[in-house]
Amino acid sequence: MATIHHDDAADLSLIQAKKIAIIGYGSQGHAHALNLRDSGCTVCVGLHPQSKSRQKAISTGLTVKSNHDAAAWADVIMLLAPDTTQPAIYEKEIAPNLSAGKMLMFAHGFNIRYGTIHPPTNVDVTMIAPKAPGHRVREVFAEGGGTPALLAIHQDATGKAKQLALSYGKAIGATRAGVMETTFTEETETDLFGEQAVLCGGISALMKAGFDTLVEAGYQPEAAYFECVHEMKLIVDLIYQGGLNYMRYSISDTAEWGDYIAGPQVVNAETRRTMKELLRRIQNGEMAKEWIAENETGRKRFMEMRRKEQHLLVEQVGERLRGLMPFLNPVKIATEPPSAAVGAKP
């Protein structure tokens, strides 16, 4: 059984006694910084001088320093920049300021697991990884709740790393829901697999395939969108509340029959073999090498795929339908022009 810690296992005063630098102010960075501040901690945000997030952080009342100055000032340094930019930030601005006894923290184990960051042996290296996007970490905390998180200790130079990391977890609200002990390796490999095979890659591919199948068969795109995309949230919310059993309890018997009969035909033996291959590439480092190389060579393939996906029919139909339902608080992101999409004609 997993070891899970709650509020009674964490001493908030430990992290309140430290100076904390949050390096990065994106999805996770803003949530950690604001939650820590609201928990009575001394926090600053580290950003490069040209960062577009600088004014956002300042507008909330947070202190903003350069990455170098933040790392030099802090006792605890939480590195929340994107995975592929962390190594350069670490080497240039954090490593020179890692004196003995400090704690270097991560919210994802990628760079420790794949050896792109090598901390000195005289500092604590830990992880508190919330199991939610940053905006939810902040929203749920502000509502009085918390999002679950994972705890890992890679290096315990002081002998006090676990308790200080748990204190940090309490300050961002994670112990309200539960902080589960794991390792950097387990967190990294399960997180990457979950994103690719299920949460992002799997679900988006399934919804697109369902939508395309109906449209190609002559059904209205709007009907296909409602059936294969819009209703996904309604089903997932039921699973979120009470598991698969509650979802099946809540739907019609006809839908439940379809679950049992059709599900294994879609996610079949071939699908499971593909999942195992994805996991193998994560475990042996092939996936990490490919992603690092993509970033080192200008992200051309990544950007081509992003442009193409932004202008799919399912996205166009969805944007129009969401606009008719303002109670959903629909969000529209900036996209690349269609002419930049892969295969587009000049």
**Spatial extent as radius of gyration:** 22 Å
Number of strands: 9
Structural class: alpha/beta
Largest sheet: 9 strands, mixed
The side-by-side strand order for the widest beta sheet comes to 1-9-8-7-6-5-2-3-4
The average pLDDT value, as a whole number, equals 95
Strand content: 5-15%
Please tell me about this protein's structure.
- The protein has 346 residues and is α/β, with parallel strands linked by helices.
- Helices cover 55% and strands 12% of the residues.
- It is built from 17 helices and nine strands.
- It has helices at residues 12-16, 27-38, 54-59, 67-73, 86-94, 110-113, 134-142, 161-171, 174-177, 184-199, 201-216, 221-250, 253-266, 269-283, 286-296, 300-310, 313-323; strands spanning 4-5, 19-23, 42-46, 63-65, 76-79, 103-106, 124-130, 149-155, 179-181.
- Helix 11 (201-216) crosses helix 12 (221-250).
- The protein is globular and about 65 Å long.
- It starts with a strand and ends in a 23-residue tail after the last helix.
Could you name the key traits of this structure?
alpha/beta, 17 helices, nine-stranded mixed sheet, 346 residues, 12% strand
SSE topology sketch:
Layout: E1 4-5, H1 12-16, E2 19-23, H2 27-38, E3 42-46, H3 54-59, E4 63-65, H4 67-73, E5 76-79, H5 86-94, E6 103-106, H6 110-113, E7 124-130, H7 134-142, E8 149-155, H8 161-171, H9 174-177, E9 179-181, H10 184-199, H11 201-216, H12 221-250, H13 253-266, H14 269-283, H15 286-296, H16 300-310, H17 313-323
Parallel strand pairs: 2-3, 2-5, 3-4, 5-6, 6-7, 8-9
Antiparallel strand pairs: 1-9, 7-8
